[in-house]
Fold UPF0237 protein CLCOL_14600.
Amino acid sequence: MKAIVTVLGKDKVGIISKISTILAEANVNILDISQTILQGYFTMIMLVDLSQSLKSFKEIKEILDLTSDKLNLSIKIQHEDIFNSMHNV
C-alpha cells in the first residue's frame, strides 16, 4: 500500500531527518519526496510504500501524530487513494 505524508510548519533543523528516521525504523520506503521553504515555512510531501512495513498504518499514524505535537508541526498521512480522490475534481 502507498500513502502520502505531508508536513507543514515553521522551518527548523532536523525535520527531514526525524520524519525519515521514523519511517525507516518502520521499514517504510520513501518513493518520492518534494520539500521547500516558503517564507520561513517548511513544506514537504512524500509518497511512501508501506507494503513491507513492520508497523500498521494506524501505528505509523499514531507515531507521526506524536511527532507532530513534539515538533509543533502539522504531519498527516493518508492512503494514496484517498489523497488522489480528494485532489481530483
Q: What stands out?
A: The radius of gyration is 13 Å.
